[in-house]
Amino acid sequence: AKAAGKNRITLFDHTLRAERLHHAEIAAGLRQALARDELTLNYQPVVDLTTGAIHAVEALLRWTPTDGRPVPPDVFIPVAEDTGLIVDIGRWALERACADAKRWHHRHGIAVTVNVSGRQLRERTFRDTVLEVLTRSQLPRNALTLEVTESMLLATTPDETQRITDVLADLRAHGVRIALDDFGTGYSSLSYLRTLPVDILKIDRSFTAPLTNTDHRQARAFTKAIVELAASLELRTVVEGVESREQAGVLQQMGCPLAQGYLFSPPATATQIDDLLQVTPWQ
Ligand code: C2E
Ligand code: CA
Ligand code: CA
Ligand code: CA
Q1: DSSP 226-279
Q2: Most buried among 86, 123, 243, 278, by the most CB within 10 A?
Q3: How far is it, in rounded angstroms, from Cα 119 to Cα 104?
Q4: Where is the EAL domain (predicted)?
Q5: Which helix (H) or strand (E) holds 42?
Q6: What is the mean pLDDT of residues 163-174?
Q7: What residue's CA is closest to ligand 1, atom 4?
Q8: Letter string b/e over residues 95-111, b meaning 16 or more CB atoms within 10 A of that residue's CB
Q9: In this model, does residue 282 exceed pLDDT 90?
Q10: Can you tell me the ipTM of this complex?
Q11: Nearest residue CA, atom 19 of ligand 1?
Q12: DSSP element (H, E) containing 89
């Protein structure tokens, strides 16, 4: 038993060390990524379920080191947050997204949504940065949606939570829309719904797969209740991760206004979005 315990500790130390190395390697690479032009944005359409038209596009970061394979966002974004690099990277993403969205908004009236991490929101300059980028890009303020998660508030003190809430309310008063991302995955979603100034709810994709599974009537009831609650609070709902026509059909019947997922389009390059906008609506 003692030997086994010892082995387990060795193994644990080993993986921990490998993880730290990995983290340091990613951090070092990421530090150069902006200067080396290794970051790009992909855009995934958010589709109006009644017309099939593109309502908005969500900007999603991609990182391909010049001498390597693409690193998935779920791997590099946590490192960017830990190291603080997300502040510069996030600002770059906001500028890039607003610049690309200008022509889409002008020609097709669509909005762009940009993911924001808690680290960015805690920066004192966040509010001014957003308004400055908007002014310089000449994108109308109401054509930008910022996506935040409730988990970004986990590590904050009550004072900080209040300050972040005030910043979001201030940006919203300027016309910027706020979306609550990954809704349903946290612990206190409903209480944040009361306190956070939001316009849009994005229901996490873990609720989407069970929608068409007859063994999961509860999942369907949950999604329906959230869609109805959101509508009564005058919030719009986006359901994420829609991969099949059946899922889209169920959501349409529930009166869910917006959806996003591989059924409509995977995240695409800006040029591919230009082309897509010529041929939509679907259906
Ligand atoms: P998210 O904000 O929840 O983004 C949605 C993720 O779901 C994206 O993964 C997207 O490619 C994926 N997805 C879309 N449709 C489907 C579908 O039908 N099925 C399945 N299985 N997946 C689908 P991605 O691009 O790998 O991004 C992962 C996460 O990285 C994002 O989750 C977001 O939290 C973060 N992220 C991406 N870009 C940024 C950024 O610019 N800033 C920050 N702070 N975070 C970002
Ligand atoms: Ca998002
Ligand atoms: Ca999400
Ligand atoms: Ca997420």
Answers
A1: HHHHHHHTT-EEEE----SHHHHHHHHHHT--EE-STTT---B-HHHHHHHHHH
A2: 86
A3: 29
A4: 23-281
A5: strand 39-48
A6: 96
A7: 60
A8: bbbbbbbbebbeeeebb
A9: no
A10: 0.98
A11: 241
A12: helix 86-108
Distance 146 CA to ligand 4 centre (A): 13
DSSP secondary structure code for residue 71 in this structure: B
- Which numbered atom of ligand 1 lies nearest the CA of 149? 34
261 Cβ below 6 A of ligand 1: yes
Query: Ligand 1, closest atom to CA 263?
Result: 18
Q: Express each pLDDT in 39-80 by its tens digit.
A: 999 999 999 999 999 999 999 999 999 988 999 999 999 999
User: Measured between alpha carbons, how far is 247 from 121 in angstroms, rounded to an integer?
Assistant: 34
- Residue 64 identity: T
The pair of structure tokens assigned to 37 is 């032009």
Computed on alpha carbons and rounded to an integer, the radius of gyration of the chain in Å comes to 20
- The Cα–Cα gap between 245 and 251 comes to 10
HSE-up of 218 (CA within 13 Å, CB side)?
0
The answer to whether the CB of 243 is under 6 A from ligand 1 is yes
- Give the C-alpha separation, 67 to 117, whole Å: 27
Residue 79, ligand 1, Cβ within 6 A:
no
Q: Decide: 61 in ligand 1 pocket, CB within 6 A.
A: yes
Q: Report angle CA 58, 87, 69 to the nearest 5 degrees.
A: 65
Q: Supply 31's token pair.
A: 């530090």
**Rounded to 5, what percent of the chain is helix, strand, coil?**
55, 20, 25
Highest mean pLDDT out of 43-57, 150-164, 204-218: 43-57
